[in-house]
Amino acid sequence: MAATITAFEHSPDRGQGLARDMRVRWAFEEVGQPYEVRLVSFTALKEPAHRAVNPFGQIPTFEEDGLHLFESGSIVLHLGERYPGLLPPDADARARAITWMFAAVNTIEPPILELQNAVLLEAKEAWTAQRLPAVKDRIRKRLDELSAYLGSADWLDGAFSAADLMMVTVLRRLGPSGLLDEYPGIAAYIARGEARPAYQRAFAAQLAVFEQGSGG
Ligand SMILES: N[C@@H](CCC(=O)N[C@@H](CS)C(=O)NCC(=O)O)C(=O)O
């Protein structure tokens, strides 16, 4: 039986592919493996049955043959280790790719999440307007550093890998902020990821959930 992942029944991004199941869907498509999707409501996320798989009550999760995983990065790493197509066979190159996967979620994503929380959850707080410039500058610092590292390279470390999959999906969350307009090199890097057939299949699959749910 194919592995089963979880995704939002009603994604707040209205089909833009920003929810983290997109990372896992894309990984499945890159390695050419089938997967099933169990859609979960916001209520069900917080119920014991779901928390038994993810104690934090979030998507995505992964279940296959009794193995239960959560954390998008861990699931992508698991698929990369299990099937060819996401991690380089050379041990050193693989270690570097995993390093960049961590950089995506642990160095680049945190300031992006800070901005999202400020805009989506704290917009009405009196201090948000004062705080926003500093939050945006923390993102710019990381984007400056990432741009300098990437230079004119297509991908982070040689060929496309799970590192790029994670980095592109993290960076895409900046779309609504307009900050990517300041970084044409990073915007082009994201576009290269989005142009991959595996990305497009994954994007179409998550968009179909939104369109079915909205009667579209
Ligand atoms: N670090 C986790 C974050 C998971 C996460 O934040 N999931 C969001 C959707 S993208 C979620 O389930 N939000 C609903 C909630 O937290 O109640 C991962 O990468 O999987």
> Main sheet, how many strands, which sense, barrel?
4 strands, mixed
How many individual β-strands?
4
Mean pLDDT: 96
The figure for the number of domains is 2
**How many helices?**
9
Helix content: 55-70%
Would you give an account of this structure?
This is Glutathione S-transferase family protein. Pfam families: GST_C_2, GST_N_3. InterPro entries: Glutathione-S-Trfase_C-like, Glutathione-S-Trfase_C_sf, Glutathione_S-Trfase, Glutathione_S-Trfase_N, Thioredoxin-like_sf. Residues 8-87 form the GST N-terminal domain. There is one protein chain. The chain has 2 domains: 3-86 and 198-213, Glutaredoxin; 91-196, Glutathione S-transferase Yfyf (Class Pi), Chain A, domain 2. It is built from 9 helices and 4 strands; from the N terminus they run E-H-E-H-H-E-E-H-H-H-H-H-H. The mean pLDDT is 96. With 216 residues, the chain is of the alpha+beta class. Strands 2-1-3-4 form a 4-stranded mixed β-sheet. Helix 7 (162-172) packs across helix 8 (184-194). It has helices spanning 21-31, 42-45, 48-51, 72-82, 91-121, 128-150, 162-172, 184-194, 197-213, and strands at residues 3-8, 35-40, 61-64, 67-70. Bound molecules: glutathione. Glutathione binds at residues 19-20, 45, 57-60, 71-73.
